[in-house]
Recover the amino acids of this structure.
């Protein structure tokens, strides 16, 4: 099912509320577009249009090593979001798991303490619990955003 600008905007608003840094990065990527070679331009049918524009402007034609910027299609924008969320979930789990494994291997307390007890309340982070939360989050993201899932239907509900 094709993705229109309104659907993409709704998904990005939801993402901005939940993960503003990621939403900013994705927005920037979408604004910049994707780089395409002469060969890619020919594949997507943009080559002739761009070549005629260059000729009208009396500029040299596109060369084999020239590149152009193409806007992302709706489906490509959704794929960017899907891959970013999957990567984020994988990275969250892998980093916590590596830290927990290191703590266990060195026989360290898997609870991290932040702050100076003499100056402020100490904050605690339980690596076992955080790793488990990240594992469950990764599993959920994988289930929701697998290739077979209709991402636009899931995200707009």
């Amino acid at each position: 099912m094709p993705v229109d600008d309104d659907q993409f905007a709704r998904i990005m608003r939801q993402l901005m509320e939940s993960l503003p840094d990621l939403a900013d990065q994705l927005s920037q990527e979408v604004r910049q577009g994707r780089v395409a070679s002469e060969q890619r331009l020919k594949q997507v049918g943009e080559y002739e249009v761009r070549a005629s524009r260059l000729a009208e402007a009396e500029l040299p034609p596109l060369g084999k090593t020239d590149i152009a910027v193409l806007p992302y299609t709706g489906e490509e924008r959704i794929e960017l979001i899907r891959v970013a969320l999957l990567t984020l979930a994988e990275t969250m789990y892998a980093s916590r798991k590596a830290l927990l494994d290191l703590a266990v291997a060195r026989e360290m307390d898997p609870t991290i303490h932040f702050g100076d007890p003499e100056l402020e309340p100490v904050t605690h982070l339980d690596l076992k619990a955080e790793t488990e939360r990240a594992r469950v989050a990764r599993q959920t993201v994988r289930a929701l955003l697998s290739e077979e899932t209709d991402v636009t239907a899931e995200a707009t509900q």
Summary: The helical segments are 5-18, 20-32, 38-43, 47-56, 74-105, 127-145, 151-156. The radius of gyration is 23 Å. DSSP finds seven helices and four strands in the chain. Residues 74-105 form the longest helix (32 residues).
